Backbone:
C-alpha cells in the first residue's frame, strides 16, 4: 500500500495531470451546478480532447468531470430546489427545506462533507479491492470474460426497471452497430453498404456526442424552463458540516457502503444507491418525521451514497476491463485509444498509471471541496443561466467536436443522426445507457466468445462446463427471466411500463 | 423499513412522447437490416485466401444474433406498451426545428471550408440563437461571444487544425491570424 501511495505521488509531478485534475473538477462543478446538463454532456464533449493526452491525464479529466458533477449538483438542489443532476434529486428533500429555514450554508456544508467522505471512502475501497479482483480474473477464460461482459449488459438492462424491453432493444441496437465495419476473423466488411468510410466502423465519439451532447442541446434549445431567481442569502461558514457529519457515523458510513456496493455492480449506480441510503437512513432514524423537512441525515445519506459511486465504478473497469455504465464505458475508449489494456495485466504492466489514478482520485476530492468552499456563492448563480443559451453553446461545441475528430462530414452526419435519436429517447424517457454499453462491450464480447468457442472446437457446453461461466450463465438466465416477468406483469396492469 | 412508504415510482416520472412509435420504428428497421444480411455480410468460406475458421467465426453470426434480439425486444416493447395519444402537430413542429438545426450544422461544415472557423461559428451561433428565440443585441452578443470563446478554446487552447478556407486565399492576411481564424 505504501509503495502504491509513493508511486502514485510521483505521478502527480506531471503538470498536465494537475491541469486535468483542476480543469476537470472546475468544469464538473460548473456542469453539475447548471440544472439540465450534468457531467455526461461534458464527458462527451471532452472525450476527443482526452485522446491527445496521456492516459492518466485523460482519465483524470473525465473522472474530475464525473465526480465533481455530483458535488456541484447539490448546489441548485439546496438553493433553488432544482437538482443540478438527476442523482441529486433526494438532496432537495432535506437540503432545500433546511436552506429555506435560514440555514443554506449548513445544508451545503453537510452536502460537501458527506460527498467528500463518500468519495474518499470509495477510493480506499478501490485501492483495496481492484487488485485482488484483477488477480482472480487472471484465472478466467475467454468464455468467463465474455460471460462477465454479457452479465454486465444484462444487469444494466434489468436495472432500468419498467423499461426492460426498451433497454434490451437498445442494447441489441448498440451491439449491432458495434459489428458494422471490418470484422477481424476474415477481414470482411459487415453492413458497410459498399462505402469506404464505414469500413472503420461507426465512430464512437460521434455516437457519444450525438446521444449525450446534441440530444441534450436539441432539448435545451427549445426549453421553457423558468429560472427561479429566489436564491437564499449565502453567508460564510461552510466548514461546519465537516464536523457535523461525524455526529451521524452510522448514516454516513452505511450510505458510503451503499454507494460502493451499487457502484461496483454494473448498471445500478447513483440512483439506487441514494434511494437505498435515504430510505434506510429514514427507517433507522430516531426522528424519521423530520425527513423531508430539513433532516441533516437526509442530506448526508443521499450525498454520501451518490459520491461513493464514481470511484467504485472503476473497480470492474480496472480489474476486468468491463464498464458498468455509460461514463466508465466512455473512459474505456480512452484506455483503448492509448493501448492500455484494463484487466489483470494493467496492474503489472502499468503500475504507475494505476497508482497515479488512485492518488489523483484522492487529491481530486480535496481539490473539489476547496473549489466549492471558495466559490459556492458564484457557482450558485450558474443555475440561472437560461437553458436556451446553454443549448446554443453545447450545439457549437458538439459541432466542432464531431467534425474536428476526423475532419469528415460523415462523422457530423452520424452525430446528428444519433442526436435526433437522443432527443427522441429523452422525450420518450427511454434510457440511452444500453446503446453505449452495447457499442463498447459488443466487440469485446464477440472477441472473447469467438476465442473461447474456437478453442473448444465449437462445443457449446463450454458455457456451462466451468463453474464460473456456469454461475454467470445461471445469473444471466435468471435476470432475463425476471425482466420478462416484470415486463409481462406490467402489461397485465393495463399496459406495460416499457417506456413506450 | 416498516414505516417507509413504498417508493415504486421512477425518480423522474415524465410525460412520454412517441416512445412506442420509436420502438416500432426500431423493430421495422431491424427487420429490414436482417433481411439484408445475405448481401451485407459474406460467408467465411467465400473469403479467398483464408482458412475457414468454423461456424463461430462466421462474419454474419453476430449481426444476425444482435438484430434478432433487437427485433424481438423492440416489437415486444411496441405491442406491450401503453396506448398513447401523440400530438402529431407538436411532434412535427419539434422534429422540424431539430431538422432545421441539423441542416444548419451540415451547412456549417461546408462553410468551414469557405469562410474559415471563426466566421462559420459566428454565422452558426447567430442562426442557432435566432432559432432559439433570441433577437437584436442579445442575438449579436451571443453569436460574437460564442465565436470568440470557440476560437479561444479550440484554435488557441487546443490548437485544433482546420483546412485553409477559400476566403483566406483571396485576402492577404498574416499567417498567425489565419491559424487563429
Residues:
Amino acid at each position: 500500500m505504501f509503495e502504491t501511495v509513493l508511486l502514485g505521488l510521483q505521478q502527480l509531478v506531471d503538470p498536465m495531470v494537475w491541469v486535468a485534475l483542476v480543469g476537470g473538477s472546475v468544469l464538473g462543478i460548473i456542469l453539475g451546478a447548471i440544472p439540465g446538463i450534468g457531467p455526461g454532456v461534458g464527458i462527451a464533449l471532452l472525450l476527443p480532447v482526452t485522446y491527445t493526452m496521456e492516459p492518466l491525464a485523460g482519465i483524470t479529466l473525465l473522472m474530475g468531470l464525473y465526480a465533481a458533477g455530483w458535488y456541484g449538483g447539490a448546489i441548485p438542489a439546496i438553493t433553488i430546489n432544482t437538482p443540478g443532476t438527476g442523482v441529486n434529486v433526494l438532496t432537495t428533500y432535506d437540503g432545500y427545506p433546511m436552506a429555506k429555514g435560514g440555514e443554506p450554508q449548513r445544508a451545503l456544508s453537510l452536502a460537501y462533507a458527506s460527498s467528500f467522505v463518500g468519495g474518499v471512502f470509495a477510493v480506499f475501497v478501490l485501492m483495496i479491492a481492484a487488485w485482488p479482483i484483477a488477480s482472480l480474473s487472471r484465472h478466467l477464460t475467454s468464455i468467463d470474460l465474455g460471460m462477465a461482459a454479457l452479465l454486465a449488459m444484462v444487469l444494466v438492462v434489468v436495472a432500468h426497471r419498467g423499461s426492460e424491453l426498451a433497454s434490451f432493444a437498445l442494447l441489441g441496437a448498440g451491439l449491432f452497430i458495434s459489428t458494422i465495419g471490418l470484422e477481424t476473423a476474415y477481414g470482411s466488411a459487415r453492413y458497410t453498404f459498399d462505402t469506404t468510410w464505414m469500413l472503420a466502423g461507426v465512430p464512437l465519439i460521434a455516437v457519444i456526442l450525438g446521444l449525450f451532447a446534441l440530444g441534450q442541446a436539441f432539448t435545451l434549445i427549445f426549453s421553457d424552463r423558468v429560472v427561479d431567481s429566489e436564491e437564499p442569502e449565502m453567508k460564510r461558514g461552510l466548514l461546519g458540516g465537516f464536523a457535523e457529519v461525524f455526529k451521524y457515523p452510522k448514516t454516513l458510513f452505511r450510505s458510503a457502503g451503499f454507494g460502493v456496493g451499487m457502484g461496483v455492480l454494473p448498471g445500478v449506480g447513483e440512483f439506487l444507491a441514494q434511494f437505498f441510503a435515504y430510505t434506510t437512513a429514514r427507517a433507522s432514524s430516531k426522528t424519521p418525521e423530520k425527513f423531508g423537512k430539513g433532516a441533516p441525515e437526509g442530506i448526508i445519506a443521499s450525498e454520501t451514497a451518490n459520491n461513493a459511486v464514481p470511484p467504485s465504478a472503476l473497480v470492474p473497469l480496472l480489474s476486468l476491463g468491463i464498464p458498468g455504465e455509460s461514463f466508465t464505458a466512455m473512459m474505456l475508449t480512452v484506455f483503448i485509444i492509448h493501448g492500455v489494456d484494463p484487466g489483470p495485466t494493467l496492474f503489472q504492466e502499468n503500475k504507475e498509471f494505476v497508482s497515479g489514478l488512485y492518488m489523483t482520485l484522492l487529491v481530486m476530492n480535496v481539490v473539489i471541496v476547496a473549489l466549492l468552499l471558495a466559490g459556492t456563492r458564484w457557482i450558485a448563480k450558474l443555475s440561472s443561466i437560461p437553458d436556451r443559451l446553454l443549448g446554443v453553446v453545447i450545439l457549437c461545441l458538439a459541432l466542432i467536436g464531431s467534425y474536428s475528430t476526423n475532419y469528415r462530414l460523415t462523422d457530423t452526419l452520424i452525430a446528428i443522426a444519433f442526436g435526433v435519436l437522443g432527443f427522441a429517447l429523452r422525450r420518450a424517457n427511454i434510457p440511452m445507457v444500453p446503446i453505449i454499453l452495447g457499442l463498447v462491450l459488443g466487440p469485446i464480447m464477440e472477441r472473447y466468445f469467438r476465442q473461447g468457442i474456437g478453442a473448444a472446437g465449437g462445443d457449446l457446453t463450454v458455457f456451462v462446463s466451468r463453474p464460473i461461466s456456469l454461475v454467470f450463465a445461471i445469473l444471466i438466465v435468471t435476470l432475463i427471466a425476471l425482466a420478462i416477468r416484470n415486463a409481462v406483469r406490467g402489461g397485465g396492469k393495463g399496459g406495460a411500463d416499457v417506456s413506450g | 423499513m416498516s414505516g417507509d412508504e413504498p417508493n415504486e415510482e421512477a425518480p423522474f416520472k415524465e410525460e412520454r412522447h412517441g416512445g412506442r412509435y420509436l420502438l416500432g420504428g426500431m423493430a421495422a428497421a431491424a427487420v429490414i437490416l436482417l433481411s439484408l444480411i445475405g448481401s451485407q455480410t459474406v460467408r467465411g468460406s467465400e473469403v479467398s485466401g483464408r482458412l475457414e475458421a468454423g461456424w463461430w467465426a462466421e462474419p454474419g453470426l453476430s449481426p444476425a444474433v444482435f438484430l434478432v434480439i433487437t427485433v424481438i425486444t423492440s416489437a415486444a416493447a411496441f405491442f406491450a406498451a401503453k396506448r398513447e395519444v401523440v400530438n402529431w402537430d407538436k411532434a412535427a413542429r419539434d422534429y422540424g426545428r431539430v431538422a432545421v438545426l441539423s441542416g444548419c450544422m451540415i451547412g456549417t461544415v461546408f462553410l468551414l471550408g469557405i469562410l474559415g472557423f471563426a466566421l462559420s461559428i459566428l454565422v452558426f451561433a447567430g442562426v442557432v440563437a435566432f432559432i432559439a428565440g433570441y433577437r437584436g443585441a442579445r442575438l449579436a452578443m451571443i453569436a460574437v461571444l460564442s465565436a470568440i470563446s470557440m476560437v479561444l478554446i479550440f484554435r488557441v487552447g487546443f490548437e485544433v487544425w482546420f483546412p485553409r478556407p477559400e476566403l483566406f486565399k483571396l485576402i492577404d492576411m498574416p499567417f498567425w491570424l489565419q491559424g487563429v481564424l
In short: The radius of gyration of chain A is 22 Å. Chain A has 20 helices and two strands. Chain A touches chain B through 82 residues (CB under 8 Å).
